[in-house]
Amino acid sequence: MKLEYKVEGGDFTAAGFASSQIKKILKQLNIDPSVIKRVVIALYEAEVNIVAHAYRGVIKAHIESGGITLTLEDEGPGIPDVEMAMTPGFSTATKAVREMGFGAGMGLPNISENADSFNIETIVGKGTTLTIGIKFK
Amino acid sequence: MKVKDVAEKLGLKVFSAPQGLEREVSGGYTSDLLSDVMGHSQEGQIWITLQTHKNIMAVASLRDLAAIILVKGFEPDADTMELSEQEGIPVLGTRMQAFELSGSLYEILK
């Protein structure tokens, strides 16, 4: 099964929509709740990252019998220092975003903790693509 | 214990989704950082926070939390209440601050 969702940068009112849709589908497929939890945490963080940092992006979910692959491709500023971005507590979020309770530097670490495979490709000035793989068993 | 028992015992105001007052409460989590709650709260917990915007409902729904309690007299945004009704997850409120409310909730749940 392949699904696709568009995400607009800056639109926090819609943040979490893709995560909520994919959660519903995985529930219908009777996927183990502990696996759904990991998918939802990783995807929500990645979705919020596009809203908080990029101009726009596309989320693609590929659900197969063995697991789910999430690809989040954005047009945005890119990440100049990925290692730094992966450090818990490090954030480049704006003050307004932080006041909402986002931008605490926990996004990428949360994704990494919950994914079986996690890859970041980024080009500064162009955008970032995350690939997150989670196995169902 | 159910959300309605917690609401009664702590004298909480019910802002939205009274149909969710029957939800079972497994514990509590106090934090204003959404990623922290996303990553570390557990299903069935009551979330104590001062954040009032719509995204708290997305987090509560994605993590299957029992309810949200807003502290210090804060009130939920209109679209937060709308989403709360849709999801059936109540938003409650108190004049207490987070420390005091967390202590009181801990006492009645232990």
Describe what you observe in this structure.
The complex is a heterodimer of chains A (137) and B (110). Chain A has 137 residues and is α+β, with helices and mostly antiparallel strands. Chain A has a single domain, classed as Heat Shock Protein 90 (2-Layer Sandwich). Chain A has five helices and five strands. Chain A has a five-stranded antiparallel sheet with strand order 1-2-3-5-4, with helices on one face. With 110 residues, chain B is of the alpha/beta class. Chain B has helices at residues 3-10, 34-40, 55-62, 78-87, 98-109, and strands spanning 13-16, 27-30, 45-49, 67-70, 91-93. Chain B is globular and about 30 Å long. The mean pLDDT of chain B is 97. The interface between A and B is medium-sized, with 22 and 20 residues.
Sum up the structure in keywords.
A: 137 residues, alpha+beta, Heat Shock Protein 90, 5 helices, B: 110 residues, Udp-n-acetylmuramoylalanyl-d-glutamate--2,6- Diaminopimelate Ligase, Chain: A, domain 1, five-stranded mixed beta sheet
Fold blueprint:
The complex is a heterodimer of chains A (137) and B (110).
Chain A: E1 2-8, H1 17-28, H2 33-53, E2 56-63, E3 67-75, H3 82-85, H4 95-99, H5 107-114, E4 117-123, E5 127-135
Antiparallel strand pairs in A: 1-2, 2-3, 3-5, 4-5
Chain B: H1 3-10, E1 13-16, E2 27-30, H2 34-40, E3 45-49, H3 55-62, E4 67-70, H4 78-87, E5 91-93, H5 98-109
Parallel strand pairs in B: 2-3, 3-4, 4-5
Antiparallel strand pairs in B: 1-5
Helix pairs in contact in B: 3-4
